[in-house]
Amino acid sequence: MQVHDFTFRKTSIPLFLLFLILSLTQCAADSVWGLSGASFQQRLIEGEREFLGDLAVDERNLAEAFRLGPGAPFYLSELFISINREQTAEQLLALQWRRGESPWREEAALVLIERYLETDRYGEAETLARQLARRAREQKLKFRAERHLVEALYWQEEDKAVLAALEERRKNGAPWDEELDLFLAVSSQKLGRSVWQELFVDLFFNKRASELHPRAYAYLELENRLDTFSQPTILFFQGKNMLYRGQNEEAIELIERSLPALEPEGPDMDIVIQELGAAYIAVGQYGSGAEMLLDLSADLAPSQRLNAVEMAGRLYRKGGEFDKAEQQLSVVIRETTSQEQRDRAIWFVLDMARNRSADDLLEKIAVFAPRWQQPRYFSDILEAEISRLVARRDWDRLFALYRTLAGYGSPETVARLAYLNGRTVALGLADSSGLSLSPQALFLEARDTGEQYYRFLAETALAELGFPVQWRLVGPDGSGHTVQAVDGDEGSTAAAAALIRGYLDYGLYETGAELLRSQWQTVSADLLLESAMTLQDRAQYLWSIRLTSLYSLSKQEAPDRSDLERLYPKAYGQWIEEISQSEDLSAPIFFALVREESYFDPEIVSRSGAVGLTQLMAETAADSARWLRIQEFDLLNPEQNLRLGARHFSRLLGRLEDIPKALMAYNAGLSRLRGWERSFADLPTDLLAEAIPFPETRNYIRKILVSAVYYGALYYDLSLEQTVQLFFPGLEQ
């Protein structure tokens, strides 16, 4: 027994040591630069990046990155660039290229080549571009590598190689960009090719003003080659150079002087007309510019002549000479064969009519509506005019506009007019004796025609009249996830999916989501759905909402409940519900406010300086903080931002006792709202919202009502009518 016990103790020591060694080995194999792989990945998913700056990464341990995954060096390089560890980033990209797998190795090579080009390391860029072009399996990737190769050769002044590569590119049908035209012209000149002058002429005459023109002009000037062109051509070159530099007066003078003598060489007059027109506007030469273009138009081909006449009309309009403007634009409407140009000219005529009188606009719409092709093109003019008619209580013209647009207006515009006319008749504001349509008929048209806002209002108005509500949270065909087939190469689609998933796995959410948005019509709808779900799980609600919107477009069925829950997520739900209760706010409406203000992005900052989930300005936040007795606050802190925003909204609601008015004040300011109340004192709130002159605020009210309906239905068992009547309690009157 003792022997047995001794034997056990004797052998247990090596076994213990073996387990310890295996455990340590496993930990080492799982660690990346001193951190466990799981911890490393989790910190990236949670958006941490600062810790990367403290990691001891060098050539000896660089390959540990692969322990995170086959594309880890590629993604980590972007993260290291974001914290200004450029050398480490390039080492990781090189590692991914040397030892990695597709598609990450090719993407790493492309990024590395671009970095070489940006930092004037043209030899390295050439070497890597050649290697990538040889190894690329996909033609698209090969073309990209060869494009970089041309640029690297150009900057090394390997002009014969540049021309050979460009010739091969044309032969293979590879994508071509205007910078390649510059490379072709310069290299041809350096080698004394007979066509070099024609290439420069083409660059200046047939390309819109861009940064290529100062580059090309500077080259010709530096090489003393300008004097090989005719004097009018030189003047045109100089003018194009100045156009890009913003020296519009000098550019106008030079181009105007050059044009009479340039007919044999023929600049693209459509481009000249557009660029001269923009220059005339920039320097305020409206009348003289219009006259110049009309003089020029006499000798142009028919389509170019009409382009010049249109631009002249636009210049007269800009200068306030409306009769002359309409005269020229009417010629375009009458003679053009381009429906796009006709719609554009009609828009300018209607805009001028709107500034004259409502009757003039109605007359012009009656004339031109049967001739326009894209009704939505005119929505901005009609949106503003409808608001103006409501503000003036001009119910007769409001109904006349509805009648005029029947069959010609966009569904959204017609639905708005139908609802408003139905509402004014129901309220007794409009004289219905001469109307052939009842409020019910008008509400039915608004319900069946329009977007959700007017549909929701019309449904509620009809419910008050005893009509059954048709709207349901999820339609009868909205239960599945059937997706459309995706055209394109299966391998490249799989590669794109792998790249996108990797961005999300390494916390590069914006990069991955933007890549997916740019390719959403060529990737599978399932990838859109998967990515949206991943982003929602990681509290990246803004991107989840955007991708879910694209997913809804790509699949063949209506959104189901899970789609709607991603479009209207209960983000920060515990805080929002608790804060809503403490501030005596409707939770669906506060959810809707936060969604429409920020899409639940706690770090978003607007151009005006509004910050965070509820988009508060610093002064407003400080005022709310005083009421809450908060001495210090951080608007980027989600909970604090929600509390401050809710208090601000609650105080507005307490003063105004009207949800839409409180929202108007939240969006446009209390002083503006008070002015609107004085101007539209006798209008119910839903019509007041139509009368206010700020398009942004009108749309703000619409968006929040729609969102509130979905939040109420998804999470609070509220019907459509309940939410709308909470919003507009006077709608049943």
Structure description:
With 733 residues, the chain is mostly helical. Among the domains are: 33-146, Serine Threonine Protein Phosphatase 5, Tetratricopeptide repeat; 374-464; 490-556, no CATH class; 574-732, Lysozyme. It is built from 38 helices and 2 strands. The protein has helices at 2-30, 37-45, 72-82, 86-99, 104-118, 122-135, 139-155, 159-172, 178-190, 196-205, 212-222, 231-245, 248-258, 269-283, 286-297, 302-318, 322-335, 339-356, 358-368, 379-391, 395-405, 411-426, 439-449, 452-464, 490-505, 509-518, 525-537, 541-554, 561-567, 573-582, 587-598, 618-628, 638-656, 659-668, 670-679, 685-691, 695-715, 720-727, and strands spanning 31-32, 35-36. Strands 1-2 form a two-stranded antiparallel sheet. Strand 1 (31-32) and strand 2 (35-36) form a beta hairpin. The longest helix is centred in the first third of the chain and has 29 residues, at 2-30. The chain is flat and about 85 Å long.
The main pleated sheet reads as: 2 strands, antiparallel
What does the overall shape look like? flat
User: How far is it from the N-terminal to the C-terminal residue, by CA?
Assistant: 99 Å
CATH class value of the domain at 574-732: Mainly Alpha
Structural class estimated from helices and strands? mainly alpha
At the fold tier of CATH, the topology name of the domain at 574-732 is Lysozyme
What is the residue-averaged pLDDT? 92
Rounded Rg: 33 Å
Count all strands and give the number: 2
Show unreliable segments.
1-13, 15-27, 476-488
Strand content: under 5%
Task: Report strand order across the widest sheet.
Answer: 1-2
CATH architectural label of the domain at 574-732: Orthogonal Bundle
